[in-house]
Design brief:
The chain contains four helices and two strands. With about 130 residues, it is mainly α. The chain folds into two domains: about 45 residues; about 80 residues, no CATH class. A two-stranded antiparallel ribbon has the order 1-2.
Length: about 130
């Protein structure tokens, strides 16, 4: 049986690479773009654009939460329209101002929307209430 010996430096290097990958994939799962996730994985601090009211970044907890916030002067004119193909909407918006499952559910429900299942349940409850 052959025994493979790996130096401490090589082990440290492999661990650093794995930690960098973990930071990248965590940032991607938190909704960051590829470029932002890559920058975060390499140690840069990335914050959302100043005008992006759909995203809130907390430097203290290093988490990214998407929070839909209506404009201060915007008053809903009537019931919120639910598109026929709402089940095919992406959970998070693919572009700024884009329609998303979470955004739609947030507008329809007072409950926090933490997952796609929560979003679907909120929209289905609203549809059932409307009849």
């Amino acid at each position: 049986m052959r025994r493979i010996v790996i130096s401490e430096a090589v082990l440290r290097q492999r661990q650093e690479i794995q930690e960098q990958r973990n930071r990248y994939y965590q940032a991607r799962s938190d909704g960051f773009s590829r470029e932002e996730a890559n920058a975060l994985a390499n140690g840069a601090e990335v914050a959302p654009a100043a005008n992006d009211r759909h995203q809130e970044f907390s430097m203290a907890t290093d988490e990214r939460a998407f929070i839909e916030q209506p404009d201060q002067d915007e008053q809903p004119a009537g019931p919120i329209e639910i598109p026929d193909d709402w089940k095919f909407l992406p959970y998070l918006p693919r572009s700024k101002g884009g329609t998303s499952l979470r955004g739609l559910a947030t507008k329809l429900s007072d409950q926090p929307i933490n997952s796609a299942a929560d979003a679907v349940a909120a929209i289905e409850a609203e549809l059932a209430m409307r009849g």
